[in-house]
Amino acid sequence: MTRLLTALLFFFPILAGGAAHAGNVSELEILGFSSDGSIFAFEEYGIQDGSGFPYANRFYVDVASDSFVTGTPIRILLQDESATLRDARAQARAPGQSIVSDAELMANRGYTAGANAITELSADPFRMNVNPRPVIPPVDDPIEFRLEEFNLDAQGCENLGPTMGFRLLRVDLRQDGSVSLVHEDESIPQSRNCPLGYRLGAVQTIHPDAGAPSYAVLIAIESFGFEGPDYHWIAVTGRL
């Protein structure tokens, strides 16, 4: 079954015995960058399949090293049936203010140069070619990212079938189309929860007044869930 068909079946669940089965798709909120473009932040939130508990996760990424800022990610799961998504998001928001305030992130949100929702079936989930800024005619060279999946064992997933890692490539369109490696998995972290596949979700860019232009590539992870496949988000960052 193709990746797109899998996503289609997920959003229009098959009815069996009168019960609909579905996983969870995290809502993605791009928060923005620090004023110098050195930190990128985003949030995912939703209702955990199986438990019905609300959760919110905030990620703050050091752009240059493509690594989490100390003390992050911030993960909140409210194991209370009366709790709301608003409650979970508020609890995740509070500790993030000492890292980069929401006011600073909002003022430096940058530009969403490309975006493919999980429900988008006509877009290429493995290739995104964008102009980094909405300037017409363009003053920047376009940037292209390509996503490749490959089989990679994940600890604790041995009896669930093949799991996947990914590599992210950047294509230099200015000269001869040379390809450089941005990221390649050597192992799969447990937080990905036995990944089945990946797809490009968005490219966010910023050209700060003081600091180097930066980008973040948002990637959706399809993984095993309690009631069906789950979709969560990660980001790969770098300098333009």
From TrEMBL:
Extent of the signal sequence: 1-22
Keyword annotations: Signal
Organism superkingdom: Bacteria
One Pfam family hit: DUF2259
Protein name: DUF2259 domain-containing protein
Naturally occurring in which organism (per UniProt): Aquibium oceanicum
